[in-house]
Specification:
transmembrane, membrane, transmembrane helix
Length: 50
């Protein structure tokens, strides 16, 4: 019984140590990829100018 309590406490502490929620990490990754897309889109026609 004590062993189960220790395992439950360890499992709970593993998730409590995350600095940010996973959804926030996903939103940051999505935002950075959209920013990279916009930079790429901004320079799409540079090769045809010269």
């Amino acid at each position: 019984m004590l062993h189960n309590a220790v395992l439950a406490a360890e499992a709970a502490s593993e998730h409590a140590n995350e600095p940010v929620a996973p959804i926030v990490l996903g939103l940051i990754a999505f935002g950075s990829l959209v920013a990279a897309l916009l930079v790429t889109f901004a320079f799409r026609n540079v090769g045809n100018r010269h």
